[in-house]
Amino acid sequence: MKPSSVDALSARRLGLACPSDRERIESARMEALRNTVAHARQKSPWYRERLAGLDPDCLRTSADFARLPFLSGADLAAHGRELLCVSQSEVARIITLQTSGSTGPPKRLHFTREDLDSTVDFFQHGMFSLISSQDKVLALLPFSLPDSTGDLLIRALAKGGVHCEGVWPPTDWRALALRIRDENFTSIVGLPQHLLALSYELPHGLVRTMLLCSDYAPQSLRTRIEEACGSETFLHYGTTETGLGGGVECQAHGGCHMREADLLIEIVDLRTGDPVPEGVVGEVVVTTLNRQAMPLLRYRTGDLARLDTSSCLCGGVTARLCDIRGRRKACSIAEGYSVASQDLDDVLFALDGLLDYRASLTRSAGRDAISVEFLARPGHERLEREIHQALKSVPALNMAMQSRTFVAGPALRVESFSPSHTLKRTILDNRGSYS
């Protein structure tokens, strides 16, 4: 088993020899952190005021760093211009994120060409965790606009001598499978639900590897892909805030090796914000290192995961993000219970025949109801009943249903959903002001 390719990338960008070790990585990252904080205080009005009186040279340990204030999504939306550390002429790309269902100001992330090049560097090296130079890659990602995710990936792999093409949006899975066969693509990158639908159209063993990105991927979904088409699945963790790329699994599948030269990851208690012991699941907090346009210091992502800094079975020493649950936007339901889309993913994607779904909450006659629209493979005519049974296996939903103020609404089969790459899966709450 070869060591994670992210190790060599992180060592090079931190100025370390490879193979490296945790002590040298941590020392180099603290130096990068001090430089990043100094850059932010000097160039950003927001950080200049927030960190007034702080001497960056005093940041020597993780405990020193943990005393700095958090940056929230609301801060990012409200004070984006004040966070900017370069002139507008130096900004190569702006990505606007509007939280689903939100009427507030959107978040706008700014990147210089150097910032984007660091992502290209990670994409190139990270992909070699699952491909070789002989592979041919198909990216089911937006790619037509310059510096879009697919475009960055295609350029990254070209630098590594690997041919990559893009398809967006993917719609006709049978035609796409024929193209993959005829043009000898051996690795596919895309959203988990898209790769699931595609896997049932592919001959077994044709595609060697698949990289699941951009949304939560329950183990049940990965297992179905691997059983359907014989591909080995890998996970990628990344958000716009991490610079689109964050971490990728190696062949040991023991968590996503993080790009530690560019990101400092903390795990904190979701309620208190206090650091949790290593190995405990908590909220992922991201600090960007060496980012020029808009450095983020202690940004609370809302994602849940745990961190592992022990040596990986692959021999790598880069920290790994494990048990990634994604951004948990929980909806309150009857009797004080709450449910998130990840809870539904775990049970619904285990249903043979289900390819994708959208869940929504409504309120009528004093009762809440959860309804599901879904895509299914032909021949699975009893999925409506299976979906209702699966919903009852979610503890929060089961307990709420016993109160008689919460019911399972209809499960309706549909022909298609509008493709979306930028919005994470959520439960659509149509109950108005009720919470």
TrEMBL record:
Domain of life according to the entry: Bacteria
Gene Ontology molecular functions: ligase activity
Protein name: Phenylacetate-coenzyme A ligase PaaK, adenylate-forming domain family
SUPFAM superfamilies, per the entry: Acetyl-CoA synthetase-like
Signal peptide range in chain numbering: none
A Pfam family recorded for this sequence: AMP-binding
InterPro entries reported in the protein's UniProt record: AMP-dep_synth/lig_dom, ANL_N_sf
Gene3D superfamilies found in the cross-reference section: N-terminal domain of ligase-like (3.40.50.12780)
Keywords: Ligase
Annotated ranges, domain AMP-dependent synthetase/ligase: 99-287
